Every structure is written in structure tokens, then in C-alpha cells.
């Protein structure tokens, strides 16, 4: 049936990518290599990751449109609930793999471009409720929680790597200053994650003065920080708090007025 065929095709594709990585690793580790050979293997690795990302992105898009009743390919008949769950799991695996590969490709081929670390996790919006990996994505604004968590994880990870590089090149003082400039953005990030975790309900909300304080702190960090990654961490926090302020204070009032 469609379940078995989908799982077989997907399992074969994942195993093929793993086997390709193992093959590349064995070639890279076998004896001395010339610069040209190293560059060839490096290029092959990047192409492999890019191909895997594209395949999984296409699979995720096909699954997403199939589950919302707008199939991109001609199909016959309706899909049962059990089949929907299996297809949803496959689509979510493809979405996660595509996002991870885009971030990995950004590290290896683009030297950890900050904008790419912010844009790539937005593909997680393709996630669907499958009842196994992800559920309750339709609960309020919880759908945006995996996206924000991945963005912040990528930015904080890049900041830590940069700080470690500063520690090796300059010394501990430079690394400490990098961390100190980034720490003021942490409360704003945690506040946004808590809000999205509770689906945007009042349980995860905060008082108006605290949101305004987060906005001021993030705004100051944008101009005070010297590292672009820290500035982007502040920009993400500032954008999130501004959207939160608009939705919570102005949008609800506008809806009440219209109604």
C-alpha cells in the first residue's frame, strides 16, 4: 500500500545519504591527499548535502499540500486517517532533515551566514500534526515555537563558536565580553519561547512594562554590540516583542472595536 511504499522509498533515500557520507569520510581519512583532491571531496560533500536538502524539501512540500487537500500530483481516492498519520510522520522527518541540511550547508559552504541561520528555520512551518513527532501545532501560536527555538539555537550556537574563536586568538577577556554583550538578550528570548510554548495564551504572557523593557534592552543591544551575530540576536528578540506588543495590545483592541 501507499504507507509501505512511502516508508521504503524514504528509508532507502536516508540510507543512501548515510552511505554516501560514510564513503566520503573513508576517502578523506585514507592517506595523504593533494589540495585538489581535498577540494574535490569538499565540493562533493557540499553537493551531496544540497541534493539531500532539495529532495527532502520537495518531499515535505508534496506531503504538506497532499494533507491539506491540494495535491501537487494526480492522485486517486481519499487518504484514510492512519495513512494521513504515516504520511505526516514522513513529511515531518523530511522537513527536519531539510532544515538541518540547510543549516549544515550554511556552515560548510557559506561560513555560517547569519541571515541564512535566521531564514532556514522558517521551513519548519511546513510541519504538520502527525500525532507521533509533533502534535497540537494548531494550538494558538505554538506552531511558531519550533521555528523560533531553531533560530535562537543557531544564533546562540554561532555566538558560542565565535566566542571560542576569540578565546583562542585574543584571550579569555574577548570571549567574556562577547558573552556579556549577548546575555541581555536572553530574557527576551526566554520570554518569547515561553509565550509560544503556551500557544500565545495568557499563561505564557507578561505584563506590558516587562515587554517594553525587553524592547528597550534589545534596541540598546543592537547599537552597543560589536558582533553581528549578537546584533541579530537582539533583532530577533526585538521583532518578536514588537509583534507580541502589537497583537496583545493593539490588535485585540482593534478587533473588539470592529466587532
Quick overview of this protein structure:
The protein is mainly α. Helices cover 74% and strands 0% of the residues.
Descriptive notes:
The radius of gyration is 22 Å and the shape is flat. The chain has 259 residues and is mainly alpha-helical. Helix 1 runs antiparallel to helix 2 and helix 2 runs antiparallel to helix 3.
Walk me through the topology:
Layout: H1 2-28, H2 35-67, H3 81-110, H4 114-119, H5 145-169, H6 172-182, H7 186-197, H8 208-224, H9 228-258
Helix pairs in contact: 1-2, 1-3, 2-3, 5-6, 5-7, 5-9, 8-9
Provide keyphrases for this structure.
single chain; 259 residues; mainly alpha; 0% strand; disordered C terminus
| Oligomerization | single chain
* Secondary-structure class: mainly alpha
Uncertain stretches: 253-259
- Please give the share of residues in helix: over 70%
Amino acid at each position: 500500500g501507499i504507507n509501505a511504499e512511502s516508508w521504503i522509498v524514504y528509508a532507502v533515500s536516508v540510507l543512501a545519504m548515510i552511505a554516501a557520507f560514510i564513503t566520503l569520510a573513508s576517502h578523506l581519512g585514507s592517506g595523504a591527499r593533494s589540495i585538489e583532491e581535498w577540494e574535490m571531496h569538499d565540493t562533493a560533500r557540499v553537493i551531496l548535502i544540497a541534493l539531500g536538502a532539495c529532495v527532502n524539501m520537495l518531499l515535505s512540500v508534496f506531503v504538506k499540500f497532499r494533507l491539506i487537500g491540494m495535491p501537487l500530483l494526480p492522485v486517486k481516492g481519499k487518504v484514510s486517517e492512519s495513512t494521513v498519520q504515516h504520511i505526516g510522520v514522513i513529511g515531518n522527518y523530511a522537513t527536519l532533515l531539510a532544515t538541518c541540511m540547510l543549516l549544515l550547508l550554511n556552515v560548510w559552504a557559506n561560513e555560517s551566514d547569519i541571515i541564512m541561520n535566521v531564514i532556514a528555520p522558517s521551513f519548519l512551518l511546513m510541519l504538520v500534526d502527525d500525532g507521533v513527532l509533533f502534535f497540537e501545532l494548531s494550538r494558538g501560536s505554538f506552531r511558531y515555537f519550533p521555528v523560533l527555538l531553531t533560530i535562537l539555537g543557531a544564533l546562540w550556537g554561532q555566538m558560542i563558536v565565535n566566542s571560542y574563536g576569540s578565546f583562542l586568538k585574543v584571550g579569555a577577556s574577548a570571549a567574556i565580553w562577547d558573552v556579556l554583550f549577548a546575555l541581555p538578550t536572553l530574557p527576551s528570548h526566554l520570554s518569547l519561547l515561553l509565550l509560544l510554548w503556551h500557544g500565545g495564551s495568557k499563561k505564557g504572557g507578561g505584563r506590558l512594562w516587562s515587554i517594553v523593557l525587553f524592547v528597550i534592552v534589545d534596541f540598546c543591544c543592537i547599537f552597543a554590540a560589536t558582533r553581528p551575530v549578537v546584533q541579530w540576536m537582539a533583532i530577533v528578540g526585538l521583532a518578536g516583542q514588537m509583534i507580541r506588543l502589537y497583537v496583545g495590545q493593539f490588535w485585540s483592541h482593534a478587533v473588539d472595536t470592529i466587532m
